[in-house]
Amino acid sequence: MTRYSGVLRTVGARYRLPSADLDELTQEVRVRLWGALTTNERIDAVSPSYLYRAATTAAIDIVRRRRSARGDSLDMVDDAELSARRAPPTPEIDASLKELGERVEQALQSIVASRRPVVRMYLAGYGTAEIGELMGWTEAKARNLVYRGLADLRLRLRAMGIDGGGDT
Amino acid sequence: MHSNDERLRLAYGTTLEGHPDGSRPSHPEPEALVALAERSGSEAARLEVLDHVMACGECRRELDLVRASLSAARIPRQRSWFRSPSIGLMAIAASLLIAAGVRLLSTSGDIETGPRLRGGSAVSTYPVRWLPTGAAGLAWRPTVDAVGYRLEVIDEAGGALVDSTMRDTSFVLADSLANTRRGLSWPVTAMLGDGSTVGSLPVRLVRPAR
Description:
A: mainly alpha; Arc Repressor Mutant, subunit A; elongated; B: Immunoglobulin-like; 6 helices; 38% helix
């Protein structure tokens, strides 16, 4: 459990998880192990496969719980979170970005379906190495798909009258 | 309007945060997020899930949570290079090399080649000196309080070719004995004044290759 908690801190930082999420996850796994194994000795000797199952079900339950909470008070939670995350308001830039964002979303709808999720992931801030890791591809394959997908996207944006040039 | 990658990312970010949940298709089940993180199921199905996840801020954060949890608990996999056939052959070759080295070490003590003094027991023997005639000169260090020495030269079957008691600390084993029998060894026992005895380790008698 201690090892899991320590590794989770490291991995969590890589996935940009807030510490509150890590605490919740650690606590959820700990509660499961305590409930099933009851003693420190047995928890310390837990098999990796058992720990993996506990970590999996803990994550699933947290996701369900959050969705349920969002469903109960959707507007209040989302508004509070979004206002906290957003950068200070700069009306001109904000409007310009929003407009471009809507066009990008429209353009994405028309590119090849197999490339779209990869381009979305790249635009969401993930690197090609992480895309490859998630999909089980080499970094070169992920980079190639991102490159082609972005080229498709720029073509569509140009067709909409938006200069989609720039670097990849 | 000009847009490089960074600007495209910023613009895309506004779409992730700006959509209330209701404007997206239904979210994938948490198990689908686990399947995506575990790379289980078909690639097409995972890409479909990924397409939603990367267009939905909440699902993206949930996927990161699932990935972090599974990564932290992941069972260490056996390294693929260890299972590679070439590495396996190299491991076998290394094992054979080690076995040969151990064998060499265990037998090298039998060959009398250097000016070593054998010790570790009460009677220390000198390395065998092979004479030009083919005879073997056997010698040992004098032992304190020894009144005599018993030298035995024993063949492979345990028969004694030589069993002599002497006061001297050397002996010349005739060519006819030293070179016609295999697996000879020679222990020396010192007989002390108080009636007790101490012995040497039996040393194999091997003529060095020319």
